[in-house]
Design goal:
The complex is a heterodimer of chains A (about 80) and B (about 650). Chain A is an alpha+beta fold and about 80 residues long. Chain A is about 15% helix and about 40% strand. In chain B, strand 8 and strand 9 form a beta hairpin. The chains are: A alpha+beta (about 80), B alpha/beta (about 650).
Chain lengths: ~80, ~650
């Protein structure tokens, strides 16, 4: 069982850090869309870089490079 | 019509439009970023053997459960697909796993389908290998791996359609948890849809579901309530099952790694928080500088050419009314517009290169954070950037904005971003302001005008978002496609198309209007004080009363009015007016410099020129923009509000600036 201290938000990852998706913490259509983009529990992801001013966060998920807005990235919980 | 209908479906930026162009011979815009196609395009496929089909180029989507307005369109087409419908599912080999997600949904719908894989050669460069046979075995539908060579690719995709290589995968079944499936089946019985469709529809936003399907929401709501109660994580489960199946597919056909590819190495510079903006700024400056420096030569040559042509024709043609019409109306009007062709074409070419390489996405990436602060997103910045070429495609681009308020705000401020057809006017005015200006100084001024326009648009957007269209922050998910070298043939094609567009406009609208104006200039009417006056100057006199406070005379008034049709008319109208007035051959620049008013003062004083530049920056006087605004917002109120606000604002601004300067 995962300890809650190990779970963090995707935006808290460091540059180049790899982690696994714990869950998408959103029930609405956007939550569904994030899951559909491949952020299903257990998926390995890597944070590539962040844009300035809480802008895009660039993530490699399932072999493709996605840029998520800060607010969207907040709803993806990960563990390492 | 019982012709086959081919739908090109796929994730954003996988190259659907390229294939559409291959199939139909159309020349739709392609670029290296997400969301280039905003509306479904239709075209006809036909080959010498007599095969015919209607091809639909759909906007890109990640899933059938529609989220954005464009995705609703796709949903609608697939939902109402009949037995004549065929799906070409286009995949990007570089992100096969995510691309297959929509693929499995399409397989479930039971439509005749063919998978077409693009960019397999890029995958090889990254050190991976795609086993098409293994994937075909797993998917049990035809797969075509497209070549990188455009001629081969074109033949391959045309063969797929001509030979009708589509198959229905009948027994496709993903093993969702039994209890969930049971509920889907029950719903399927109630609604009369297939179980697959029900599963997809349940994930759909409830607000849209009823509208899209025309079915009663109660049945769905009941099922969702039961699912929520019994399986709190059912949405995650329904999607995870799909990916689990895809992972198995990919395992047998491809190996993934987090390796970096060639283009990523550039990104440390282009996406750097300090270097990125510096590189972008310098790139724009150098590009504009070279555009103006290069086009200076043909422009000066053109000016001399027009003068020489007019002198020559004056010598060899008899002194008749049609000679005057030809010299003053046609050459004076259309000729002066054609001078600006090189700038226009080169600017459009530069913007096309930026889009083609994927550079624009990098600008969006860098600016998204800043844009969020004023209530917009990187995506709305992208549509504002598109306005630099022409406002109308920029406005269309805003369709990819998911948030209504953000979209309306972007549409509202878009005309303040200076489009390429305003460049000739600025160049003319700058050359009147500062004689003997170097290309470098000229570029700096144009650059300043560009920046001011953009900043003003952003400020206005911030203001609107703060006080009028307040909503929660907008959603932004984007992809960063690898940088590629510009496809020069495509860029040249765009430039050629734009050149023809410009020439066509000059040959039709500008030509017709110049002749009309010339005729009006020779049509005398009686003014109120009994004097004979031609209708243009009569109208100019009326307009002058309104425009005097901002420093414009009657001639400028008429030119501004005519520029409402197309902006190029501004220059052609001035050309005709001054050619008729002076009766002397000469270039417009010099004629304007020498123009004096009744008191003997120069018409184009410093204050007037500045006021004119400001007027063009901030007013909305482009019929095309006005009409597209009405079309895109579906609201006369907003369109008219924008029209009166922008013109009122620019009038007020010009009034203040003119009086401060004179």
């Amino acid at each position: 069982m995962l300890q809650s201290s190990m779970i963090k938000c995707i935006s808290e990852l460091c540059k180049k850090e790899t982690a696994c998706v714990y869950k998408v913490d959103r029930e609405d259509a956007l939550g569904v869309r994030l899951l559909e983009l491949g952020f299903t529990p257990g998926t390995k992801i890597q944070l590539v870089r962040r844009a300035p001013q809480q802008g895009f966060i660039e993530i490699v998920v399932r072999g493709s490079r996605l840029a998520l807005g800060w607010a969207e990235a907040q709803s993806i919980m990960v563990y390492s | 019509m019982n012709a086959r209908r081919i739908f090109l479906v796929g994730n954003p930026n996988v190259g659907k439009t390229t294939l559409f162009n291959d199939l139909t011979g159309a020349q739709e815009k392609v670029a290296n970023y997400v969301g280039v196609t905003h509306a479904t395009q239709q075209g006809i496929f036909s080959d010498p053997l007599g095969h015919r089909a209607t091809v639909y180029d759909l906007p890109g989507t990640y899933s059938i459960s529609a989220y954005t307005p464009e995705e609703h369109e796709i949903f609608d087409l697939l939902y109402h697909a009949d037995h004549q419908a065929r799906v070409v599912y286009v995949l990007d080999a570089r992100s096969l796993e995510r691309n297959l997600f929509l693929g499995t949904q399409l397989l479930e719908l039971g439509l005749p389908i063919c998978f077409v894989i693009c960019f397999a050669h890029c995958l090889q460069k990254q050190g991976h290998w795609l086993d098409v046979k293994a994937l075909e075995e797993k998917l049990q539908v035809p797969i075509v791996c497209l070549s990188a060579r455009s001629s081969i690719r074109r033949r391959q995709i045309r063969e797929v359609v001509a030979q009708d290589r589509f198959q229905v995968r009948k027994d496709f079944h993903l093993s969702f948890p039994h209890e969930i499936e049971l509920l889907w089946d029950q719903l399927a019985q109630k609604t009369g849809l297939s179980s697959g469709w029900c599963g997809l529809l349940l994930l759909q936003d409830p607000a849209q579901r009823g509208r899209l399907t025309g079915l009663k929401e109660t049945d769905f709501a009941q099922t969702v309530a039961v699912l929520d109660q019994q399986f709190p994580q059912w949405k995650t489960k329904a999607i995870t099952v799909r990916y689990e199946w895809i992972e198995k597919c990919v395992q047998v056909s491809i190996h993934h790694s987090l390796h970096t590819s060639f283009s990523w190495n550039w990104d440390w510079l282009l996406l750097h928080r300090i270097w990125g903006p510096i590189v972008t700024g310098s790139l724009f400056f150098i590009a504009l500088l070279s555009i103006f420096a290069i086009s200076e030569y043909p422009m000066v040559a053109g000016e001399r050419g027009i003068e020489a042509l007019q002198t020559w024709l004056k010598g060899c043609l008899p002194d008749t009314w049609w000679r005057a019409l030809l010299l003053e109306g046609v050459i004076g009007g259309v000729g002066n517009v054609l001078l600006f062709l090189p700038q226009f074409v080169l600017t459009v070419g530069f913007l096309s290169v930026l889009e083609n390489t994927g550079y624009v996405v990098r600008m969006v990436y860098l600016l998204d954070g800043w844009m969020k602060k004023i209530g917009l997103s990187g995506a709305s910045f992208l549509s504002l950037i598109s306005c630099y070429a022409c406002t109308i495609p920029g406005i269309m681009q805003a369709r990819c904005l998911w948030n209504r308020e953000e979209r309306l705000t972007t549409l509202f401020v878009a005309p303040w971003v200076n489009c390429a057809s305003r460049i000739p006017i600025y160049l003319l005015l700058i050359s009147l302001l500062f004689q003997n200006i170097t290309p470098c100084q000229k570029t700096l001024l144009i650059f300043a005008i560009y920046l001011t326009g953009l900043m003003a648009a952003l400020l206005l957007a911030a203001f609107i978002r703060k006080f009028f269209l307040k909503t929660r922050m907008t959603v932004s998910i984007s992809e960063i496609p690898p940088l590629i070298w510009p496809q020069w043939t495509y860029v040249l094609k765009v430039m050629k198309a734009q050149m023809l567009f410009f020439l066509k406009k000059a040959g039709t609208w500008v030509f017709a209007f110049s002749v009309f104006l010339w005729l009006c200039l020779h049509l005398n009417i009686s003014a109120s004080n009994g004097e004979k006056i031609d209708c243009v100057h009569w109208m100019g006199g009326k307009l002058e009363k309104i425009l005097k406070p901002i420093g414009f005379d009657g001639n400028l008034g008429v030119s501004l009015l005519s520029s409402f049709g197309t902006r190029e008319n501004f220059i052609s109208t001035l050309g005709v007016l001054y050619n008729v007035d002076t009766k002397q051959p000469g270039c417009l620049r010099e004629q304007l410099q020498q123009a004096v008013d009744r008191k003997g003062k120069p018409v184009y004083s410093f204050a007037t020129c500045i006021s004119l530049i400001l007027f063009f920056m901030f007013s909305l006087q482009c019929m095309g923009t006005f009409i597209s605004m009405r079309f895109e917002t579906h609201s006369w109120r907003l369109t008219l509000l924008q029209f009166f606000f922008m013109n009122g604002f620019s009038y007020g601004l010009c009034f203040i600036v003119y009086h401060l300067l004179s």
